[in-house]
Amino acid sequence: MKRITIDPITRLEGHGKIEIFLKDDGGVENVYFQVPELRGFEQFCVGRPVEELSQIVTKICGVCPGCHHMASGKAADAVYGVEPPPTAKKLRELFYMAHFVHSHIAHFYALAAPDFVVGPTADPALRNIIGVIEKVGVPIGTEVIKQRRIAQEIQALLGGHQTHVVMNIPGGVRKGLTSDERDDIVKKAEGFVEFSKFSMNLFKDVVLGNQTYLDIILNGPYALKIHSMGLVDANNHVNFYDGKVRVVDTEGNEICKYGPNEYLNFIAEHVEPWSYLKFPYIKAKGWTGFVEGQDSGVYHATPLGRLNAADGMATPIAQEEYEIMYKTLGGKPVHNTLAMHWARLIELIYSAERSLELARDPDITGKELRAPLDNVPSEGVGIVEAQRGTLTHHYWTDEKGIVTKVNIIVGTTNNNAPICMSIKKAAEGLIKKDTEVTEGILNMIEMAFRAYDPCFSCATHSLPGQMRMELVLKDTKGKTIRTIKRS
Amino acid sequence: MSLTQRVLVLGIGNDILTDDGIGPRIVQQLEKETLPSLFAFQTATVGGLEILEMINGYQGVIFIDAIKTRGGVPGTIYHLTPENFDETLHLTNLHDINFLNALKLGKTLQMNMPDKITILAIEIVEDLEFSVDFSPPIREKFPEILQEVREFLKTIE
């Protein structure tokens, strides 16, 4: 048996890697995706006032600090048994929509577009955001950076800082919005809507308009028939900030729908000896291994998972695009992994439209920013949709609000099993007997991983960057017979 | 950025992850003790697009980041150039792009990118455990590390 190691940090200790084990005939035997474990977060939190956690958790991850801040803020509300006033909830959601806008823009243009605008097997020196800009033009590149920056500015205004957010306190938020600030955000959100529509049109022209790329999306080794999870509002429309978690099966039928404090009744976590990161699964189905199908316990919580789990989008243009995607791809649910990029752009439009709705809402400049804390604190759960999946924070405190226990299931952890399965399926589809494993094939395997927009900064620890890969072909005695490097 | 602050000293890392936060901790200390000068001080948690706009407009940037190498001596400071960017722990960002591409992107978009970039990468011991304290070897060597960075800044004109 040969062993292929895709190690993004070959000269550094620890951290993540993908290992592909080949059979003697050259086909894929198995694939392992491994990431290390961060230790001691619970101990770090225990003994601190629960209101401190919303600031501490922004440091778990530099990529999605706003998501942790929101889930933590909601968990602290629940610990105190308090519901923030409408203005506070809307300010939080407005911040959160800006967080989605900046993150989804970054993912599409920096990570997804190079594979489709430049090409999945193009020269790796060109297959990056600069190659994308060379194709689409500098003015568009400038607009990408501008819109992303504006989204960060809104977060900084509402949250006190774009990364180290200090917005939420139990029962509400620290500061409100003036009418001048509101007017400025309205203009900026109008810009988001236009830019998100432009990005969708670019995707349609460049990706869907190219038969080769469409074939890769529809017929490449990138489909995974598993269940779908996402937060929905009272109308079963996608919602990132609030609502109930809904899970639908591979045929689109509802398996369960639960409020935050019920999550332990519906989700459990499987442990594998070769991975520090756990594998969440649907409790009603049980852990059935890394298998697809109706009887499997595996689900994904991704942009596509969220759209599959919902009945629609709550804003008009996003809804229109939602209908187009499902009509084009043959109805709901969709199981094509690379359609996550399409779903992510529909979410970008939703975030932009929702930003504008919230900025125009008269409540947004209200003065009631916090509800009084009248209850003895005890235990609470907060759930939001992070860009990378459903994010759950569960805190326990003593009667003074001092933390005694913490449990967090982060977005990417939900997708641990699907990521492993998608990588394996892509490897099996692309590496056959006598296949020459080129850098292009490595990239096409990585595309399966990248579609999830995984972030291990909080699931474990940050992989240091864009997957720097070294593929090592080893014989059965462990002797290296060939190495392919890509930085 | 003031007119006199031409060089950005940017510490990158997570200050609640044991030694991972050595860059930000050094920058915070230097900011406290440095009189107004050509240096501006900032901290960040990740690289990629996040730092592109932070470095825009400066003539020079000195990154202070953590590094882990096999067999490295804790506290050693490596002086690296952008070509070595991916050997440190934070000048890349899985979510978007690596530092070298961020720099190229800035130039492509005609942003005002620094001419001179230096990376001070400090060999650390522990970055997988949550703690506001350094590991014992780094705690012991921190005064020397800080002094070496101070001495380096004195060489910048």
Helices and strands, with pairings:
The complex is a heterodimer of chains A (487) and B (157).
Chain A: E1 2-6, E2 17-22, E3 28-34, H1 41-45, H2 50-56, H3 65-79, H4 86-118, H5 129-136, H6 138-159, E4 168-169, E5 172-173, H7 179-208, H8 211-219, E6 227-232, E7 244-248, E8 254-258, H9 263-266, E9 267-270, E10 279-282, E11 299-300, H10 303-309, H11 316-328, H12 339-360, E12 379-386, E13 389-397, E14 403-409, H13 411-414, H14 416-430, H15 439-450, H16 456-459, E15 469-474, E16 480-486
Parallel strand pairs in A: 6-11
Antiparallel strand pairs in A: 1-2, 1-15, 2-3, 4-5, 6-7, 7-8, 9-10, 12-13, 13-14, 15-16
Chain B: E1 7-12, H1 22-33, E2 39-44, H2 49-55, E3 60-67, E4 77-80, H3 99-108, E5 116-123, H4 136-154
Helix pairs in contact in B: 2-3
How would you describe this structure to a colleague?
The complex is a heterodimer of chains A (487) and B (157). Chain A has 487 residues and is α+β, with helices and mostly antiparallel strands. Chain A has 3 domains: 2-38 and 415-486; 83-221 and 336-371, Cytochrome-c3 Hydrogenase, chain B (Orthogonal Bundle); 224-335, no CATH class. Chain A has helices at residues 41-45, 50-56, 65-79, 86-118, 129-136, 138-159, 179-208, 211-219, 263-266, 303-309, 316-328, 339-360, 411-414, 416-430, 439-450, 456-459, and strands at residues 2-6, 17-22, 28-34, 168-169, 172-173, 227-232, 244-248, 254-258, 267-270, 279-282, 299-300, 379-386, 389-397, 403-409, 469-474, 480-486. In chain A, the strands form 5 sheets. A 5-stranded antiparallel beta sheet of chain A has the order 3-2-1-15-16, covered by helices on one side. In chain A, strands 8-7-6-11 form a 4-stranded mixed beta sheet, with helices on one face. Chain A has a 3-stranded antiparallel beta sheet with strand order 12-13-14. In chain A, helix 6 runs antiparallel to helix 7. Chain A starts with a strand and ends with a strand. Mean pLDDT of chain A is 88; it is low at 1-15 and 459-470. With 157 residues, chain B is α/β, with parallel strands linked by helices. Chain B has a single domain, classed as 3-Layer(aba) Sandwich (Rossmann fold), CATH 3.40.50.1450. Helices cover 31% and strands 20% of the residues of chain B. In chain B, helix 1 (22-33) links the parallel strand 1 (7-12) and strand 2 (39-44). The longest helix of chain B is centred in the last third of the chain and has 19 residues, at 136-154. Chain B is globular, with a radius of gyration of 15 Å. Chain A binds chain B through residues 11-14, 36-41, 43-44, 56, 59, 62-63, 65, 103, 106-107, 110-111, 128-130, 133-134, 138, 141-142, 145, 148-149, 163, 453-457, 461-468, 487, and chain B through 14-17, 44-50, 52-53, 67-70, 86-98, 101, 104-105, 108-111, 127-131.
